């Protein structure tokens, strides 16, 4: 018999610049169990994730094309947050994405944990660093798939979604997604998401459809190559599309 998860009371509010510390805290906590992300962070300083995400969030929170929303409890504690960015047909409204990518970070998404689609480091990694090479490959494949389906359109992308692990599976991420989609539907836009293994089911329930996927054997890319214990496992990213104003 499975254990029941208690509900939690929270309200949604737009993010302010002084919320950055809380957003970084939630994102870092949610990030810890994701194998793809952990592989990308190997060999970096202890605070690499926090530093990279802080730079990206600081860009998003001031960008006119970005919309950030937080879920807070009655004490004001941030339980989760989401960031949507609208991209126009010509690329002219993509300042927040470009600036965040220039900072460099790992890319991962998890509906009840973390989603970060726009902060993958783009420069060529050292040849002795196969994990970074995997990050570069994932980035190229993600961009190619997004351009294949969305080039020439004005649309929204879920750039960041994170829930504090202590409050996961209590509806926080779902409410954040639904609130964002209400605004997006009002504008009549399609939506794009690069989804992790743990997140795609949530997105499917709100109208997203899988249009492609990339699967990686993480042990083949880990330092030292594949080992007998296969400790990293396989990882699937799904490319998901929600069309304009679904019925």
From TrEMBL:
A GO term, aspect molecular function: acyltransferase activity, transferring groups other than amino-acyl groups
Chain intervals with Basic and acidic residues compositional bias: 118-131
Region (Disordered): 100-132
CDD domains, A to Z: NAT_SF
Domain spans labelled N-acetyltransferase: 84-242
A UniProt-annotated Pfam family: Acetyltransf_10
InterPro entries referenced in this protein's UniProt entry, alphabetically: Acyl_CoA_acyltransferase, GNAT_dom, Trichothecene_AcTrans
SUPFAM superfamilies for the chain: Acyl-CoA N-acyltransferases (Nat) (SSF55729)
Superkingdom, natural source: Eukaryota
Name of this protein: GNAT family
Organism in which the protein naturally occurs: Colletotrichum asianum
């Amino acid at each position: 018999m499975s254990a029941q998860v208690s509900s939690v009371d929270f309200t949604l509010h737009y993010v302010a610049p002084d919320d950055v510390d809380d957003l970084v805290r939630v994102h870092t906590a949610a990030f810890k169990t994701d194998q793809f992300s952990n592989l990308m962070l190997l060999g970096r300083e202890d605070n690499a994730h926090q530093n990279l995400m802080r730079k990206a969030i600081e860009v998003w929170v001031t960008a006119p094309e970005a919309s950030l929303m937080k879920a807070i409890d009655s004490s004001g504690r941030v339980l989760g947050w989401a960031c949507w960015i609208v991209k126009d047909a010509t690329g002219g409204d993509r300042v927040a994405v470009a600036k965040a990518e220039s900072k460099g970070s790992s890319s991962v998404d998890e509906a009840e944990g973390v989603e970060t689609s726009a902060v993958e480091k783009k420069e060529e990694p050292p040849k002795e660093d196969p994990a970074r090479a995997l990050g570069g490959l994932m980035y190229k494949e993600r961009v190619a798939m997004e351009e294949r389906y969305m080039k020439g359109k004005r649309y929204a992308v879920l750039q960041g979604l994170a829930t504090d692990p202590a409050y996961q599976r209590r509806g926080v991420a779902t409410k954040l997604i639904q609130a964002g989609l209400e605004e997006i539907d009002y504008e009549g836009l399609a939506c794009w998401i690069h989804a992790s293994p743990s997140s795609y089911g949530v997105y499917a329930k709100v109208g997203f459809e899988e249009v492609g996927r990339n699967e990686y054997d993480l042990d083949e890319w880990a330092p030292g190559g594949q080992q007998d214990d296969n400790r990293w496992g396989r990882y699937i990213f799904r490319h998901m599309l929600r069309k304009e104003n679904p019925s």
